[in-house]
Amino acid sequence: MEEERRPAHAMVFPFPCAGHINPTLRLAGLLHARGVRVTFVNTERNHARLPPRRAREGFRFAAVPDGLSDEDRAAPDSTVRLYLSLRRSCGAPLVALARSLGTVTCVVVSGLVSFALDAADEIGVPAFVLWGTSSCGFLGTLRLRELRQRGYTPLKDESWLTNGYLDTPIDWIAGMPPVRLGDISSFVRTLDPHCFALRVEEGEANSCARARGGVILNTFECLEPDVLAALRDEFPRVYTVGPLAGATQQQHLSLWEEDGECVPWLDAQAPGSVLYVSFGSLAVLSAAQAEELAWGLAAARRPFLWAARPGLVAGAMPAGALAAAAGRCFVAEWCAQERVLGHRAVGGFLTHSGWNSTAESIRAGVPMLCWPGFADQYINCRYACEEWGVGIRLDEALRRDRVAARVEELMGDSDAAREMRRRAAAWKARAEAATAPAGSSHDGLAALVEELAAAAR
Ligand code: UDP
User: Fold this and answer.
1) Test site for ligand 1: of 248, 262, 281, 370, most ligand atoms within 8 A of the Cβ
2) What is the pLDDT of residues 367-386, one digit of tens each?
């Protein structure tokens, strides 16, 4: 007798920040295109920011409250408050939403919302986690516990941040080449034995083992083969579906308003001449750092496009330096980043090494100047520079002369710069091949869709 087939219906819920929403939306688009019904759940606040074109995407959007007060939202630790508030207040609304939809057959969540795994259990459907960082970042996070147990972290005092201790080689993580302690994650840099962020990251990564459906990774097999082999020793179901950047036809997946003027500005620039500068959706620069950066960019004498969202600089934007670079720079609040990286005028990317930005840059074949500062950004930088050969690390303490020198190293015409461009183009080709029919990520997605369908039976 033929099995009764219900269509797979995924209730998809990302942690509500750009780095989680973007890849989750892209994955949702891919699943929808392969016949999976999708209900994409935002927080009410983000739902209200959805542009009308979202309605044309073909899948349903729904919203749950995030439980934050205005005071929470304005607080410097608003992301922590958001994390805690979601845990407190979102489980029951998710369960109620799934029950009201009636046909949900699985839950797909991004990292940082492990409470939704309990909601999936309560609804009685399997959960899948799209762990949105690099796989090397995931593996590093999974090893934080061992690093604590072996006494590598927390640091003994402030001086350990600068006395070379962070260069301690770590050569015992299966699947990783020897790396520096400080490369593994920003969370090893803590002095606090109870560091909240460290415990959260570590706990959230380990909770992926509770996702009955499996772990979905925004990477491709030949980018991180050893890491993936190590992860598969721990997680029976790992689906590699990346890079999700460029995966769907829609160029505009952002929830934020993009500055359209930067594109005509790019059109007027010479091919490969522009440095694109962006630090993602969360990073904050001190006013002094912004000054050094901007004066360095001004001194580098190359055109640059800076995506500087409100709040990026704690203080005023470096107006003097930007005036000094007038005619050569364009400052936008928020860009259509994938489109910018794919523009022929862009020849380099000064990035905070967030994973989405890194993956988008790899997908676009653009070499990077890496200035990591948080979570997995350090290991992404390490892999970009030393494993994949497509990045140059910018010194941690920003100094204008060093910034200018590094920009020249990246954008100039030296043999090393040309070689890096050649490697970036080769990685772009491999990323395209991975997502094309018969490619590893194409197959990974097909296996995931098959699993979602199986969960519906
Ligand atoms: N982004 C964008 N426009 C901007 C800046 C960032 O669309 O002006 C997007 C970028 O393409 C990426 C995301 O925001 O998809 C940032 O994610 P990432 O993981 O790089 O960093 P995070 O924001 O999580 O630190």
Assistant:
1) 281
2) 999 999 999 999 999 999 99
Helix (H, G, I), strand (E, B) or coil at 136: helix
196-207 vs 135-142: helix axis angle to the nearest 10? 110
Confidence of residue 59 (pLDDT cuts 50, 70, 90): confident
Joined together, the tokens standing for residue 392 give: 């140059």
The span from the CA of 335 to the CA of 21, in Å, is: 16
Orientation of helix 78-89 relative to helix 196-207, angle to 10°: 40
pLDDT at 259 over 60: yes
CA torsion through residues 113, 117, 123, 128, sign: positive
Ligand 1 atom closest to 23 (CA): 15
CA angle 279, 290, 388 (to 5 degrees): 40
Of 197, 243, 249, which Cα lies nearest the Cα of 216? 243
Cite the beta strand spans of 197-302 per DSSP E. 214-217, 238-240, 274-278, 285-286
Q: Which two tokens stand for residue 232?
A: 């598969």
Report the complex ipTM.
Answer: 1.00
Please tell me which residue, 457 or 288, carries the higher pLDDT value: 288
Q: Which protein residues are within 6 Å of ligand 1, measured from CB?
A: 18-19, 22, 254, 278, 280-283, 307, 334-335, 337-338, 354-357, 360
Tokens coding 453? 């369908």
Rounded CA separation 278/334 (Å): 9
